[in-house]
Structures are given as C-alpha cells and as structure tokens.
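Priority: low. Protein: Cytochrome c oxidase copper chaperone. Input follows.
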Amino acid sequence: MGNTASVKTEASDSVEQPATTAPAPETKPKKICCACPDTKKLRDDCIVQHGEDACGKFIEAHLQCLRAEGFNV
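Result:
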C-alpha cells in the first residue's frame, strides 16, 4: 500500500499545477500617441511630403488601427 499512496501523490501533483496559458493582461497603449506606430509613421511621412489632402488612405488606415486598439476616434 505504501507504493500506491506515493503514485497517487505524484499523479495528483501533476494534475493540480495550473496551465501557464493564462491570457496576457491588456496591452492597449494608454496614450493614443503611442498606439499604431507603423500607420502613424506612414501617415506623417505622407503628410510632410505631399500634404494632408493627398494622404487620405494613410490617414484612414491609421484611424482604423486606432479604433481596433480601442480608441474612440
């Protein structure tokens, strides 16, 4: 019987350990200026080179990214 008890203890130890796949904490940037750096750079570069009127697709892409990050723009 002594061997049976130790086997149960080993089996129960492996079952009791929680999986380490818990969801990560929310990673949304707290400031809108820090969100979507890739689309922000493309938008800013276009505006500097061509003016705001010529960069509608980059502006809209950045706004969509910000909305996807949870900002209300």
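The mean pLDDT is 79. The longest helix spans residues 2-16.
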